[in-house]
Amino acid sequence: MSPSRESAAPLTKPAPLSVTLRINGESRTLSVAPWTTLLDLLRNHLDLTGTKKGCDHGQCGACTVLIDGRRALSCLTLAVMKDGAEITTIEGLAKGDELHPLQQAFIDHDAFQCGYCTPGQICSAAGLIAEGKAKTREEIRELMSGNICRCGAYPNIVGAIEQAMGGGR
Amino acid sequence: MTAHIGTATSRVDGRAKVTGAAKYAAEFTAPDLAFGVVVSATIPKGRIVSIDAGRACAVEGVIDVLTHANRIRMADKDEAYRDEVAPEDGAPYRPLYDDRVHFNFQPVALVVAEDEDTARFAATLVDIRYHTEEFATDLHARREQAFKVDKPVKPRGDATKALSGASVRHDADYGVPIEYHNPMELYGSTVLWREGGKLVVYDKTQGVQNVQRYVCGVFELKEGDVQVMSPFVGGAFGSGLRPQYQVVLAAMAALKLKRAVRVVLSRAQMYGLCYRPATIERLALGAREDGTLAALTHEAIAMTSQHEAFSRNDIGWGEVLYASANSRATHRLAKLDVPTPGDMRAPGAASGVYGLECAMDELAVALKMDPLALRLRCYSDRDQDKDLPFSSKRLKECYQQGADAFGWSKRSPKPRSMRDGRELVGWGMASGAWEAMQMPFATRIVMTANGHVEVASATSDIGTGTYTIMAQVAAEMLGVPLDSITVKLGDSTLPKAPVEGGSWTAASISHAIVNAADDIRAELLKIAFTMQDSPLQGLSAEEVTLADGAVMAIADRSRSVPMADIMRHGGMDRIEKERGSEFENDDQHAHNTHSAIFAEVKVDEELGVIRVTRIVSAVAAGRILNTKTAASQIMGGVVMGVGMALHEEATIDHRFGRIMNANVAEYHMPVNADIHDIRVIFVDEEDRIINKMGIKGVGEIGIVGVPAAIANAVYHATGKRVRDLPITLDKLLG
Ligand code: FES
Ligand code: FES
To answer: What is the pLDDT of residues B551-609, one digit of tens each?
Structure first.
């Protein structure tokens, strides 16, 4: 038995659409299928693999990026819906050689092990700080709970965010 | 000299990880890259009757649909599929080999397309018909059919008689459900095809050389034709010890299509990989009035697949922890129509010690003794099964330091007697143990005249900190700064290393580095002592040290020669040395790590919501190479232990033989809000016996005992004993 190839007429895919995004300060125009997520656009089309895929279903937070300054799950965002938006990924946080304070704080506090959830954690923390809602450790924990870390670095992640917020140990 | 070993050094790969520069298996690319998406079986057992890929193939951009019917040639002997950590008994599963379905989520086809979206869409169009056979997926239903496996734990005395004669007895079953590793990185492989059919494989694995041999075996390729790399691994926890099927599928597609192929599993498909097997841990303890044990029996009944007999040491931990004149331990396996279970963080111990340490708590209640006092009463200085003393066992200090840090002495013994507002407060404790193992590893060090040092081994860093400790040990031994060291790992062409598992990597790789560094040192000294006008002339090897990039006299640090000068003088651009870890076999001692865990829970009396508000984990694990990364290892184990206690369970609908919560939203794992104070204490433990450096390893010990400490705390808070994990609020209120 071999997979049969005759049975169906060719299925055409939806026509690609053009989308322009400012990614880490650089304007990029791409032609992508309407079903392409921002996550796949970053990883597969632009080779910006710092943004991670942990579930593709909005359940883990690994794909968190900043869209117009707000944290968002790129796996649940269709790229074409964000035409004109400003996207910041983990690759866009450092200024040249100088790390973003959150990046440095994550290193200082050993706030990761395997590092796979880390870009999402850091982008999420940047969004959290911009929101200005979290003041206590308890609030940081609650508002960072959309980002799973299977390595279990949570207490160190909280410590790192406190450091970056300026109240840290 | 700068000390590196034993310090809180930040990860040397930290920058790569926080900037997104670290590349994981599915992030390598090639101009001719195609994308493969797996189609998974929807039945647990049977045969594929037909596969109609017509509609899938008709999608523009689809290149091929691979199935067992059109696959390329694969080995037909089990040995080819038996990787270095496969169970000895059984026939390993062969991906896409034939029409048999052995378990749900088994791969049955691979759709390859020019881009990932297209492959994913086309995969939904593959029409597969099955003939389903009768199946079984419920351990509890097959308990009576479980067969006994040969385990090295020997019976001592007459446990049955001692039990019946004991003045206080406790006998119960403790249940551990199926748990999944769920590393955050999806399983994936990128396979590049090179002219002549050679493969460069980027794989998510804990053992590049294991995968390399396996791929060569399965596709009957020559050793030099396959290189496997895995520079960064997004978590694994044991799931990457054996090669996973996506690497077979990606390699098969690359070989067939003669181009690069990447295959990434979906999160749901990762529930068709290995897992911590569900077990029933049956404990019976018999004690005298004073708390000393007269008998200890432990029977574990675990699930395995029909095709392989997977079992680990659930039952031997009482022999390591507690003195008992009579004991009996048995391990049984029930075969089910499921994938073969695998090693998940502290395999065997996490489950077995959960049962043992809850049983000890229940015995303490029956004896009206403090749970910690009972542990001390039953303390054993010897591994009773092996009848050997320990190379070191500072468990008493773990109890002491852990109890002090926690404030255990302030515990009020009665259940439901402590409270914080509307919440009941419970304090529980447990002991933990793991084996301290070491394996043959090799490493190569290259020192160049410009002061740069490269340390290389085919081992892995799955988040454990291997990169960092390798750099630390080399920096200390060679007296060079940390930032002049480059560590290379995760490449099958590097010096030999087994899979990274069992907590054996730190001890093993460190000794290989020390040996290679010794050879480099000897080479440097040979020249340094004989150089003209050398300030070191007349000194012996014992009188000099390597520090600050120079060879210097220990007694007078001003007498020194820079290593660069030595190499220039010797006319050398580089010194290259490769050595193994070379451990002596010590059969006179038992080798273990130990821990004491103290947990506080707060339980909402009306709603049954449980919070683990405090954990103190005191660990004795020999010499700690890096207090920062080692503490993270323990903390990660504790967090996973919280998950094991309160959250984690893969639920099979036994009517369909299929996991119903195959995702990371309904398979609950701890999130940030679930984790509160965790304090890790490393108890000083100098072990001069186990190996030259006194290293034991910390990857597993962190989780062992944590579920029991929490379960015991929940009992103390509520007066209700829930023995089947996870302890969810419905069980507590029910
Ligand atoms: S990949 Fe987007 S939330 Fe998991
Ligand atoms: S660092 Fe591994 S998942 Fe968070």
So the answer is: 999 999 999 999 999 999 999 999 999 999 999 999 999 999 999 999 999 999 999 99
* Residue among A57, A93, A110 minimizing CB distance to B632: A110
B179: tokens are 């748990």
d(CA B70, CA B454): 45
- Complete DSSP assignment for B521-562: HHHHHHHHHHSTT-TTTT--GGGEEEETTEEEESS-TTSEEE
Cross-chain Cβ contact A107/B15 below 8 Å: yes
Cα(B442)–Cα(B451) distance, integer angstroms: 23
- Which residues in chain B are contacts of A15 at CB distance < 8 A? none
Count how many pairs of residues, chain A against chain B, have C-beta atoms within 8 Å.
Answer: 225
The pick from A40, A51, A73, A118 for probing ligand 1's pocket by mutation, whose C-beta has the most ligand atoms within 8 angstroms, reads A73
Third-level CATH fold of B25-134+190-236+240-266 = Aldehyde Oxidoreductase; domain 3 (3.90.1170)
Write out the two tokens for B539. Answer: 């000194």
CATH dotted code for A101-164: 1.10.150.120
Closest ligand to Cα B235: 2
CATH number assigned to the domain with residue range A17-92, chosen from the 4 options 3.40.710.10, 3.30.479.20, 3.20.20.140, 3.10.20.30: 3.10.20.30
- pLDDT per residue as tens digits for the range B193-209: 999 999 999 999 999 99
Asked whether the predicted pLDDT for residue B110 surpasses 50, the reply is yes
Q: Which atom of ligand 1 is nearest to the CA of A61?
A: 3
- In this complex, do A116 and B235 lie within 8 Å of one another by their Cβ atoms? yes
Instruction: Kindly calculate the radius of gyration of chain B based on its CA atoms and give it in whole angstroms.
Output: 27
Asked if the interface predicted TM-score (ipTM) of this complex is over 0.95, the answer is yes
pLDDT at A9: 62
